[in-house]
Amino acid sequence: MPTGVAIRDVREQLFDAAERILLRDGPSGLTSRSVTTEAGCAKGVLHRHFTDFDGFLAELVEDRIVRVERLGAALREGSGSGTVAANLTEALIGVFETVAVAIVSLVTFRDELRARLQQTRPVGIPILGEATTLIADYLAAEVEAGRIVATVDITILAPTLIGSAHLLFADRTLPRPETEAVHAMVSTVLGGTLTA
User: Which stretches within 40-153 are classed as H helix?
Assistant: First the structure.
């Protein structure tokens, strides 16, 4: 892209390019040069908008966490409608079909990024922690609605659902799991927790 040509929504364009690289090539393929090449812009564009590459990556993670939190809000609003298993299946696919699995490997891969993120998110793995919270909040709403037994331990059920979904989606070289496979896993994990 020639210098001086305005780029609309440059941050989002760079974030989307980084996400495509992460999903295609994994964290080892993610460099400032690969991001700007994928985004179709000059390398200097990234450095004009971010302090350094790890600063860019930290903001990418934060941006994707906001997307997960939006999924959580939509999930909570849907409590009491549809089926619990179908709602959870849709939410888990929404979390893991995005860049969540790749973000986990990126955070594990880059020490400096992990250190930056720990300044604002000192507990857990970014994205997985937020996803676990959104599932726990939804399960609590369904307990309150009477669709899940009141004796269920949400602090165990939510991370079990997240961990099981993560395992289904973890290998980026394989085809994404079918909705039916995710639904079967959710139904199995829910087991006898449903009231009807």
Answer: 43-49, 53-77, 84-96, 100-109, 111-120, 128-144
What is the homologous superfamily of the domain 1-49 according to CATH?
Homeodomain-like (1.10.10.60)
Q: Which of 99, 94, 97 is nearest to 25 (CA)?
A: 99
Tokens read off for 108: 């594990």
pLDDT surpassing 90 at residue 116: no
pTM of the model: 0.82
CATH number among 3.40.50.620, 3.40.50.300, 1.10.357.10, 2.170.150.40, domain 53-193: 1.10.357.10
> How large is the angle between the packed helices 53-77 and 111-120, nearest 10 degrees?
50
Segment 137-165 shows an average pLDDT of: 96
- Using CA of residue 163, residue 165, residue 166, residue 171, what is the dihedral sign? positive
Structure tokens, 165: 């979904």
